[in-house]
Amino acid sequence: MKLQGKELLIIQGGAGISASLINAIVDGFEFIYELGKSVGSAIVRAFRKTYC
Known about the structure:
The protein has helices spanning 5-9, 19-48. Helices cover 67% and strands 0% of the residues. The protein is mostly helical. It is rod-shaped, with a radius of gyration of 24 Å. The N and C termini lie far apart (69 Å). The longest helix is centred in the middle third of the chain and has 30 residues, at 19-48.
């Protein structure tokens, strides 16, 4: 089915930023932050030789 010029002008939609996309990005940053904290803590414990 081919659209005519008038029909092409009324098409809506496209690439928008949705709440799901924002939530996924925030979750990714939180994961990277927590991973960095864990690695940093492991390095500090290794140098201080303080293991639980």
